[in-house]
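Late entry, written up from scratch paper. The run itself happened at the end of the previous shift, but nothing got recorded in the book at the time, so transcribing now.
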Amino acid sequence: MARVVSVFLPTLPTDRIRRADPSIPAETPLVVVARSGSKRWLSAVDVAAAKLGLHVGMAAAKAQALVQGLHMVDADPAADLAALERLAIWALSQYSPVVATDPPDGIVMDTEGADHLQGGEELMLSGLVNRFRARGLPARAVIADTWGAAFGLARSMRAETKVIPTGKTADAVARLPLSALRLSAETIVSLRTLGFNTVGELAATPRAPLSLRFGPEIGRRLDQMFGRVAEPIDPIRTPETIEVHRAFAEPIGAAETIAKYISRLVAALCLELQAKGLGVRRTDLIVHRVDNTIQALRAGTAKPVRDVVWLTKILHDRIEKIDPGFGIERLSLAATMVEPLNDRQIVSSLVEATDIDVTSLIDVLGNRGTHRIYRQAPVASDVPERSVQRISAIADEGGQTWPLTWPRPVRLMDRPELIEVIALLPDHPPVSFVWRGRRRRVKRADGPERIYGEWWLRTSEWTAVRDYFTVEDETGERYWVYRSGDGVDADTGSHRWFIHGTFA
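Output as recorded:
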C-alpha cells in the first residue's frame, strides 16, 4: 500500500512576493489579485490580511474598501509555479524519490519505503513542517493511503500535521467538504444546490444519477480518494538529473530477473557518471507496474561513488522490498544527488599501510536509517555537556582538540541526576551518596576539579561554579559527581550534588 504525503502551502504566493521585494513592511497586509476579463478577485492573502477578514475569492474592490493601506500585487502564476518546483526539487533530495508539484499551492510525495530514513511517518511530517517554517513558509502536511485523501485533509484541517493510519481513509474523509474532491467550482455549487455538503454524503449516493448529470468526473475523483483507481505521481526531475531507463515488452516479476536488470541499469548509470566526472550520493530506483502504480526505493552512500559492484549490492539488498504486483513494465534508475569524483590510484597495502575504510559499513547501516549513524567530535568548551557534538559519520573533525587536565568518564549522562550526599564543605569529597534509591559509601576520591560557567555566552553563568570529584564506592565502581556552587557563596550555585557520568 502506497503512502502519500500532501503538503499545503497556503501563503506561498505572498511569501514569494515578500522575498522578492523586501521593502514591503512586514506589518502591511498583502494580497495577490487575479484577473479574468473585467473581474478581479483575491487569489492569495497573507496572515496579516487574513486577520483583517480578507479571504481567497473575495472581490478585489471590496477588499480594498475594507482595508486601508492594503498592498495589492497582480498574480504571477509562472513565478509561483517556479517557486513550487524549487521546493519540490528540495524535497526530492531530502525526503522521497517520488516528489511532484501539486499546483497552485502544494507538493505531493510518495514516501513508501523512505519514511524510515526520517525516523517514521510522524517524525518525518513534523520535521518537514518545521523546515518549511524555518524558511518562513507556513505549511500543513498529511500522510494517507491516497493522493486524493491527503490533498483534501491538508486543505481542510487546522493542525499542522496529521497521519491517517493505513486502511482508515474512508473514516478520515467522510466529513470533508466537497472542495476537497478537486472538482470545478461550478460542479461544487451545483452539488450544494442539490443538498450535498460532505464527501461522505456524496459517496453514499448512487453513482448513475450523478454520472448522468455531471459526467464521470465526480466518480473518478471519489475513486481516486478512496483508492479504487490508481493516481500515479510523475516525479519531478531537473535537467541535470542523470537517469537511465529500461522498458520491457513483457512484464517481469521474478527477483532474479529484477536483479539482472538492476545490474545493467547501474552499469549504464556509472558510465554516465564517469563521462561527467561525478559520483553518486543518492540513487532512486523507480518501479513502474502494469497496474499504473509506481514503487520507489532510495539508497544512499556516505561518499560519492561510481563503483558498479558496490552500487549493485546496495540495490540488490533492497530487492525484497519490491512488490511487482501483476508485473513490472519499466525500471528507472536516477542519480538524484551527485558530487564531483576524480579517479585516483589506489595504493597497494604491500607498499604503504592504509587506513581502514568503514564507508561500506556506514552505507549498509545508513540505508536502514541515516539518523542513527554519527560520530562524536570535540568542542572547545569546559562545560562537559557542551564539549562534544554529533557530526556526520564521515565528516572531518578538522583536527580540533581540547586539552583536559582531568580524566573524563566513558559515559556522560544526557542530564545530570540529583543525588543525596554527605560531605564536609567546602572542598571535601563526599563520604557517601544515595543514587537511584541505593546508598554508596565512598572509599576513594579525587578532586575537586573546578569548572566555571561560560559567562561570555550566558549572563546567567557569570558566577556559576561546579566542583567535580571522581569517587569510588566499596564495590569498585567509579562515578563522576559534582556540587553546584563553591560551597560558600549561594550566588555560585544551589550547592546540591549531581552525578554526571560513570567510568569504566
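The radius of gyration is 30 Å.
(Scratch paper discarded after transcription.)
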